[in-house]
Amino acid sequence: MNKYDDATWDSMAKKYNLRQIPYGPGTGHYFPPHWSNGWVVEVSPAEGLYVSSAGFTPNQTIVHKIDIIEPCLWLFCIDCGDII
Predict the structure, then answer these.
(1) Pick from 78, 75, 81: nearest CA to 63
(2) Number of structural domains, the chain?
(3) How far apart are CA 22 and CA 44, in angstroms?
(4) Would the pLDDT of 82 be above 70?
(5) Sign, CA torsion 21/23/26/29
(6) Nearest-CA neighbor of 78 among 55, 51, 52?
(7) pLDDT for residue 54
(8) Contacts 24+ apart (CB under 8 A), 39-45
(9) Amino acid 29: pLDDT
């Protein structure tokens, strides 16, 4: 297990049972059709570095808590919604 696994989109995808398929050197996570066909693609070019792109409009509130002791930095650009 990678020490950064808990801070990746993969952990959220598993929680919400998103379909996962290989996407180049990373993973594509796809929301079910009734969730507006959203997606998250994530690659890890080096240990501790994750690059993601996403587009989704869920039909329910997504609650995902990240609890990791490893130092990390997350940068987000959010069109709408809240991060609390």
Answers:
(1) 81
(2) 1
(3) 12
(4) no
(5) negative
(6) 55
(7) 86
(8) 40/9, 40/12, 40/13, 42/8, 42/9, 42/10, 44/8
(9) 92
Domain limits for position 63 = 1-84
pLDDT, tens only, 1-49 = 577 777 788 888 888 888 999 988 889 999 887 777 788 898 888 877 8
| Cα separations in angstroms, 68 against 6, 36, 74, 77 | 7, 30, 12, 21
Which of 12, 3, 1 minimizes the C-alpha distance to 49?
A: 3
Cα(12)–Cα(65) distance, integer angstroms: 9
Which amino acid, residue 16? Y
pLDDT class of 83 with cuts at 50, 70, 90:
low
Q: Which residue reads 């050197």 in tokens?
A: 25
Q: Which residues contact 45 (CB under 8 A, 6 or more apart)?
A: 25, 51
